[in-house]
Amino acid sequence: MRFTSTTSSDGVTEQFFTLDEIPGVLWTPDGASGTRPLILLGHGGRQHKTAPGTVARARRYAAEGFAVVAIDAPHHGDRPQSEEFGRIAAALRAGTAAGEDPGALVADMHGHLAGRAVADWRAVLTAVQRLDRVGAGPVGYCGLSMGCGLGIPLLVAEPRIRAAVLGLLGVHGLAEDAARITVPVRFVVQWDDRLVPRDQSLALYDALASPEKTLYANPGNHGDVPSFELDDSLRFFTRHLG
Amino acid sequence: MRFTSTTSSDGVTEQFFTLDEIPGVLWTPDGASGTRPLILLGHGGRQHKTAPGTVARARRYAAEGFAVVAIDAPHHGDRPQSEEFGRIAAALRAGTAAGEDPGALVADMHGHLAGRAVADWRAVLTAVQRLDRVGAGPVGYCGLSMGCGLGIPLLVAEPRIRAAVLGLLGVHGLAEDAARITVPVRFVVQWDDRLVPRDQSLALYDALASPEKTLYANPGNHGDVPSFELDDSLRFFTRHLG
To answer: In a designed cystine with B24, which of A68, A80, A152, B71 is the match (CB 3.0 to 4.6 A)?
Structure first.
């Protein structure tokens, strides 16, 4: 794990790193020392580890004492994009533009990324928890949209993750994995999501095996998650990891 | 307004009162003085102003600085029950036992109570806000199940109420009133509610005109609202009234 830059503002230290091929960012409270809960942040499709929503969420969690890490998903951000991935992404864009239900195309894309993404996250989790200022504390995952599509297989593979914020995604291709998830989940739905049909979204919530799972829906389209969701998710993580 | 008893425990003062024919309870932080936000608590059907869930919620809110008031709904608790109400209640119990969809019967009962209940709440709100330790601060309403059925017409009639926690009820008889509500709402749903069909519950959420409305659903039957809902609703009221 190699740190390439460190900056600090508003009480939060932000450090860019690479682990093998994986570019990432770690946020911790300024002067942090000792073990603390860690939150993994998975970004959305066509976004990257420092997309504004990801950074705002990371800084908010870190300001409350959490360590937070985000990485670029395979073929996203600072990572090379393969021709094959380019074709899959183009097919998704074309299908969506043509008014097709994108559920199956989205599931194809996530399926193409999931194996690599899960291995990346597991390696990053191990490396980050070796740092003195993070340590082997409780771990949460937060990912919406593509971050949910890659997060669900991660939760199945990774017993160190104890709680998750998921959502903005339908059930296509995920029902079996969802039925193996038992950690507490907050599941975010946008009630008027034009990218994810409501019934597919509710079906993914239904498929989760977690005894504690809260469906948290608000009016508006895919990108309109209200800012107070961030505060509410912080309380969720504090309750389960704090 | 006549206070009939005052007790204090765990930092919260509990005072029973009557206002004309209406029996009620007021909770305030010990030693409270000056204006503070006020929450009106509407209890569920066949319950009363000191049902355990109502008292627990009231004490939690008051411990955070709110004034909280609960009253017995018409024909509930310490209030006389008319023969006509007895017949309506018996019809509801018989219909539910016979496996009928109780939506229409529940709406009949709430419709029978709503006129009186709304007038009671408005009088109590005015009287309580005249107390120095409450004052004319911002007001919220929290009522689930029957507390929602009586709360929706109250919200339509009462512009002093600025935010509400509602839910555990279907749309029967309430669509028109719901479409006149514009204050922020948290709408509580139990995903496996055997008393309120899910689609009727989601239809009532849909019918609310509030630009800010969060659907908050958890697994389990009508009475299984998880304890963390109370903490989350406290944050909602703090955000809007605090």
So the answer is: B71
